[in-house]
Every structure is written in structure tokens, then in C-alpha cells.
Amino acid sequence: MVGAAEEARLRRLESQVENGGGGAWEYLCLVRKLKLRRSDQVLRHGLALLNDPRARSKLGGEEWTLYEQVAIAAMDCQKLDVAKDCIATLSKQFPSSGRVGRLEAMMHEARGAWAEAERAYALLLENNPFDQITQKRRVAMAKAQGNISAAVDYLNKYLEIFMADHDAWRELAEIYVSLQMYKQAAFCYEELILAQPTVPLYHLAYAEVLYTMGGLENLQTAKKYYALTIELTGGKNTRALYGVCLCSAAISQLTKGRNKEEKEGSELQSLAVEALTKDYKKRAPAKVPLLTNMLRNMKLTS
Amino acid sequence: MAEDLVLDTAIRDWVLVPLSVVMVLIGILRYFVSKLMRSTQLPDAKVVKEGQVIIRARNLRAAAGFIPAKAFRARRIYFTNEENGLLHVPKEQAQNAQAQMFSDPNMAMDMMKKNLSMIIPQTLTFAWVNFFFSGFVAAKIPFPLTQRFRGMLQNGIDLSTVDVSYVSSRSWYFLNLFGLRGLFSLILGEENAVDDTQKMMQMGGFGFDASRSLAAEKDSLDIIQHEWTLPKMEQRAEEVLRKLVK
């Protein structure tokens, strides 16, 4: 997650670098720190730095970090010859290093030589079974090959040990959603909510999974989580507003016969409708009729 | 009061300077030797996992109100049940943990290596200084000092009449031993500086008992009352929206 201040700084640096104003190294450092995927720019500016002997020697020991960064960016851009050069330089400097070994395995991956990459990763993990990055690479590779069940297996095995890694939980949750295994996905989202209870996105995703699963109890819970998302985002999240409406509609349909208990929830939904219409009027006036039409179909407005 | 002792220039050439040079060289040598001997120790799977379990259990405890009661109960059982709960530590194992740590040959070996690279050169240089230079007045600092500094600066000379600003050779050795860190961090790079004082402090605290913190986490998870905060959220969301709509 990138904060607003950092993003502004990144944009400024990016435009500065693009227009030849220098500061390429700071830009590359920032990209690395924020773990952004700007492979194109990284490749261009990083390579320019590496090809300039004076600039390179100024970096000192950081030179090798730059080689690694450029190699990964080059693989992302399918400039395999550049990546190969970088990796060759690195392996000359650090023979038998696990980090360089990982780069070589990624090179196999980039060439599409899955079997070779698999073997290389297995070898790396044999030497260092707790290498988190290599384990995650393996998951990513399985996913890239379309072998989703293997990715799930690897992720589960990884989470058995590193169970506090919420990024992995998130990945697993998204995979489960894509496989329509909603129960499992809900568990993962619960785990994410526990790890970071103030991030509204997780509550939203959890609510969506619950809504998809259906059933009265799940729908009611989903509505509560949509409400929480509204509270955390200050009502700015359109998706959550829609979610409240959809949940209310579904609940009222399910409890058509016995409409005694569902009284207090009605106000939230009418407020959500109001907020939605107001938002649409302000930002997309052309689509207001569509919205009112749909809400009428859901029998939320009279 | 002995009026201005004159120090022979030969003392400077043969005691003061060689002592400092030797100390620097030994420091550098020690850095490379310890780099050779350093074994990259693989973290133990159990230790890694225990740390992660504790973080996750703590998260569960802190944010319990945000997940439904059913989900919370399932997790609590998963963590604290008496058969195979993650936080449950069998009795006999808890007692053995300390003993195990000492019997683990790898750990003992590592400690030995660390200590060897530190203690042996220090004893040797100290013996060397004592043997060759004991009793020398090696230098004079250019400003007067109070009597309290006598112990620090004139270690090895038992003369109360000598002015305190004279430094004995053994004291010069100690000053070098503790004062060369800045120089080392210049020569060997910031993080590689051989820091004796810090190493000595590290010696004390070793052996962190994971089973105890696991048990503590289990107890606090057991007594926690689950209260779902979500029902309150609907009202709060209503308030937020009401403000927004107005």
C-alpha cells in the first residue's frame, strides 16, 4: 500500500527523471522501497545508470542492488539478453549466492522453461527451507502456469509456517474467490481482518464473499460488514453503498412472510440509497435514471 | 610534585605508536577471522513457527470483536485446545526447553566460536602489553585532570606523585581497546565495526524461552470475552450517511 505523500513524491520524481532532470537513483530507490512495478522506467533509467561507469562507481556497494533491480525489470519486459548480462555480472561477483540463484531461476521462468525453474527453486529451498521469497516465487510460478491447485497447495504449506504473513493470506483469499471456494475465502478474509482491522477493503471483500454465499444469516452479516466499510470510509465507497442495498433487498425477499424483526435495518438502506443518488447526481448525472430504475426494480424505493 | 617528567622520544617510537598500530591490526584481523568462522545458522522451523503463532494469536486477541462469534470460537479452539492446539505446550516439554538449549551442540559451538574470536586475542594482547610495556609512562595528555582519573590513566604504575595527565602504557592499551570503534567503522564499513562493549553486553542475555510466552498467550486467549462489535456499526454507519446526505 502506497501512502498519498509517497505517491506524490514518486510522481514528482518520475516526471523529473522522464524530462532528464536527474535524480534517477532516488527514483529507483523509491520504486524499490514501495515495491512498485514500473519495469519499463526502471529498465530504461537503471540501464542508463549502469552503462555510465562514473555514475555506477558513485553508487558503491549499492551497484549490485541496482543490477538485481534492473535484471528483474528486464525479465518483466522480456528483454532477456539484458537480464542475462546483469545476472552474469552478479554471479561473477557473488558466486554461489542464494539471491543470485533465485534470479537465475527467475530467468528460467521468464524463458518459459518451467521444469528447469522448478528444479532450481527446489534446489534453493533445499539449501534454505525458510526462504520466504523463493517459496512465494514458486506459488507465483504455479499460478502463471495455470496450475491453480498447486498454487493453493504451496500457499497453504507456506502459511502453515509463516501464518502471520497477511499478503499471503490475501493472495490465497483471492485465489479461493476465483475458484468459487467461498467458505475458504471467507476464512482468509477473517484472517486479514484480524491482522489489519482498520483496512476497509478487507471488510468489503469479506462482506462480498458472505453475500455471494447467500443464506439469511450470511446476508445479515454481510450487511453489517458493508455498514462497517461505510463507517470506515465515511460513506465514500460506492461499492459498500450498493452492497447495503443489495443485502437489504435480498433479506427482505427472504423474510417476506415474517417481516416483524427486520425493522431497524430499513433506515440504513434508505440512507444508502439517498447517498448513492446524491453521489451519482454529483459525479455522473447522465446515469441517474439507470440507478433509479435499478433501485426501483429492487423495490428499495417506492 | 615531580616537576615535568621528560618522556624519551624512543618511548613514542617503540611503545605508543606500535601499541596503537598493533591494536588496529588485531582488530582488522579479528574481523576477518570472525567472518571466516561465522556460520549462517538456519533458523529452526519450530522457533520461526512459534513466533508467527504468537503474532497471529495476538492479532486474534486484539481484533476479536471484528469477526463473527462463530469464526472466533473456531479459531480459539484451534489455538488453545489441549490436544494439538498451536499454543498448547505439553508440561514435560516446557521443563525441558532450558535443558535442551544447553545440550544442543550446535548452539554451544556457536557460542564458543563467538567467544573465542573475542577472548583469545584480547588475553593475548593484554599479556603482550603487560610483558613488554608494563610500567611505562607512554604519553602525556596536554591538559590537567583530577585525581579521579588516576585509575583510568595510570593503570599499572603505583606512584601517587606522578601528575595525572601522564598515561601509562597499560592504560593506553585500554583506551585503544575501547576507543578504536570509530576508526574500525571507518575502515571496515559502518555495520562491521567490531564492538567489544556491545558484544560483552550480548553475552548476558541468551536463551529466550518461547514456551513461556506461548503459555501466556494461551491464557489470555482463554479468558477473553468475545463481543461482536459489528451490530453497533450499523447505527454508526447510519450516522455517517445521515451527515453525508445532509
TrEMBL record, chain A:
Cellular localisation: Endoplasmic reticulum membrane
Main location: endoplasmic reticulum
Membrane topology: Peripheral membrane protein
Domain of life per record: Eukaryota
Keyword list, A-Z: Endoplasmic reticulum, Membrane, Repeat, TPR repeat
Domain EMC2 TPR-like: 99-209
GO cellular component term of the entry, any: EMC complex
Function: Part of the endoplasmic reticulum membrane protein complex (EMC) that enables the energy-independent insertion into endoplasmic reticulum membranes of newly synthesized membrane proteins.
Binding partners and assembly: Component of the ER membrane protein complex (EMC).
Similarity section: Belongs to the EMC2 family.
Protein's recorded name: ER membrane protein complex subunit 2
Species: Ananas comosus (Pineapple)
TrEMBL record, chain B:
Membrane topology summary: Multi-pass membrane protein
Coiled coil: none
Gene Ontology annotations of biological process type: protein folding in endoplasmic reticulum
Keyword Transmembrane helix: yes
Protein keywords: Membrane, Transmembrane, Transmembrane helix
Location(s), subcellular: Membrane
One GO cellular component term noted in the UniProt record for this chain: EMC complex
Residues annotated as transmembrane: 14-33, 116-139
Signal peptide (residue range): none
Family from the record: Belongs to the EMC3 family.
Identification of the protein by name: ER membrane protein complex subunit 3
Lineage: Eukaryota, Viridiplantae, Streptophyta, Embryophyta, Tracheophyta
